[in-house]
User: Which sequence fits this backbone?
């Protein structure tokens, strides 16, 4: 078995003193008083990450003269012997002439066992880690066993990787069975198993163990939870402030999915029956039938958690409104035309709005009083007041309802560098709104009237910063070709924009 260590660089500090030197001139001399102080004997030592086992250099599974149905099992105990906590993963190296394709391997974590290779007294962990039985952390062919740390089976703790402490140990039972097929005749296999421990840096991400690590449209061959609603292009996900629920948008299916969240493991479970989704056509009875959901894109929760808002481009060109049951997590699209505001009114299903052609992003102001959406084809930022009780939105009247690159034939306020608006944020203090524009290659800035929600683009070049300066209309920036999204720091001091063509993250300081 292989042990793995990761150590930190040992850094020694030494005191440095500067000493003044006496100098002489002609026949006269001058002596200076000097003094020094020092801090000596600085030392340090790095922690260690190490894992060991009880195999004494002996192979655990040695099988010869195999025939269909034959099996073998062995147990091994692995212990953390380092001084630092570490996340342990199990992987291996498979060889031979092809027998590994016809061997089924089940690895079970537990405790006990009389000694190396002797599973007498072994007791499996009680947790069903991957849906294959108590304590099982791998079940599949030997050939399919993970071959690297990155792909390795995480040593688990209730659907999350466990951080081993010094002296912690676990016993593993390995069981191999030969498939009932003539194709295995005369073949061989070789296999090594490796436990590798790594001390994780703060902020390092690790995918949650087993099916708790993902939710997909088809279950991804059993690797993820199956939503039961096949679809393309998951576009956005939001989590409630209390961490109890999450919501995801599927663009091409026009569906909004609802999940409960295990606050300990982070695992998501789709709400049961039709409470788990709202879709454009009801998905054959699997979901609640909604309206103007085709092309659903970005999601935003109100600060009070009572409502969720979404943009939908494509054929919908709309901003959608949903109420939310905080106890069950269920979403309900607001009744009648209150459920959506669209560019055309969607045949009377929605309120008729403006500046919403290809609506792509939506945000709610920190005070919950207003909602702002951006639309790529309209090249506009649209402004809505929000009824905090019902969640219903009302687009501001007249030109106050939108700011667009061309003024939209007098329907909106005429803005600068707004061609292809793509993302937007409201500052934490609620005083300003900012947006990125993919065609103007710019970040634009607006002052916000907290009473009415109305936006006024900042005067002159303060109103935008672009990749080229936009012929003097904007401040000339750097690496802003094709911005597609932005966010703002919690203190409101910095805005970060990401670009496709410049392939950059741009840091913009925001004046208080």
Assistant:
């Amino acid at each position: 078995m292989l042990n793995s260590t990761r150590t930190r660089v040992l850094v020694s500090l030494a005191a440095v003193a500067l000493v003044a030197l006496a100098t002489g001139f002609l026949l006269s001399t001058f002596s200076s008083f000097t003094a020094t102080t020092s801090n000596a004997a600085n030392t340090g030592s790095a922690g260690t990450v190490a894992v060991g086992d009880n195999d004494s250099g002996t192979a655990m599974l040695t099988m010869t003269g195999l025939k269909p149905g034959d099996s073998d099992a062995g147990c091994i105990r692995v212990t953390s012997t380092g001084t630092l906590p570490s996340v342990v993963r199990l992987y291996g190296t498979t060889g031979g002439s092809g027998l590994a394709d016809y061997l089924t391997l089940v690895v079970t974590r537990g405790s006990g066992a009389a000694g190396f290779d002797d599973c007498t007294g072994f007791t499996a962990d009680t947790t069903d880690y991957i849906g294959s039985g108590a304590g099982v952390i791998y079940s599949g062919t030997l050939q399919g066993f993970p071959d690297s740390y990155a792909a390795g089976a995480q040593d688990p703790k209730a659907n999350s990787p466990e951080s081993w402490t010094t002296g912690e140990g676990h016993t593993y039972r390995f069981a191999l069975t030969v498939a009932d097929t003539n194709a295995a005749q005369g073949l061989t296999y070789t296999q090594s198993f490796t436990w590798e421990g790594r001390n994780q840096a703060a902020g390092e991400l690790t995918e949650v163990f087993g099916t708790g690590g993902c939710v997909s449209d088809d279950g991804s061959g059993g690797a993820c939870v199956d939503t039961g609603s096949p679809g393309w292009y998951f576009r956005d996900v939001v989590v409630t402030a209390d961490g109890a629920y999450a919501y995801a948008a599927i663009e091409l299916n026009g569906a909004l999915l609802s999940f409960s969240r295990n606050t300990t493991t982070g695992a998501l479970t789709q709400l049961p029956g039709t409470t788990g989704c709202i879709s454009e056509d009801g998905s054959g009875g699997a979901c609640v039938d909604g309206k103007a959901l085709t092309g659903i894109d970005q999601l935003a929760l109100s600060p009070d958690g009572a409502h969720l808002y979404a943009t939908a481009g494509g054929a919908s060109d709309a901003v959608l409104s949903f109420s939310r049951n905080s106890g069950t997590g269920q979403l309900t699209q607001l009744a009648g035309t209150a459920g959506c505001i669209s560019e055309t009114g969607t045949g009377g299903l929605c309120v008729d709005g403006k500046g919403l052609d290809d609506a792509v992003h939506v945000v709610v102001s920190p005070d919950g009083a207003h909602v702002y959406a951006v639309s790529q084809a309209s090249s506009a930022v649209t402004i809505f007041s929000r009824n905090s009780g019902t969640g219903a939105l009302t687009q501001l009247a007249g030109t106050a309802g939108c700011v667009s690159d061309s003024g939209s034939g007098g329907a909106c306020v005429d803005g600068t560098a707004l061609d292809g608006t793509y993302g937007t944020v409201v500052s934490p203090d609620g005083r300003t709104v900012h947006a990125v524009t993919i065609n103007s290659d710019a970040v634009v800035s607006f002052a916000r009237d907290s009473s009415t929600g109305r936006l006024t683009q900042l005067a002159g070049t303060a109103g935008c910063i672009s990749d080229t300066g936009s012929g003097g209309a904007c401040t000339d920036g750097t690496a802003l070709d094709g911005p597609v999204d932005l966010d703002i720091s919690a203190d409101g001091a910095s805005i970060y924009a990401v670009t496709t063509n410049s392939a950059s993250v741009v840091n913009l300081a925001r004046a208080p």
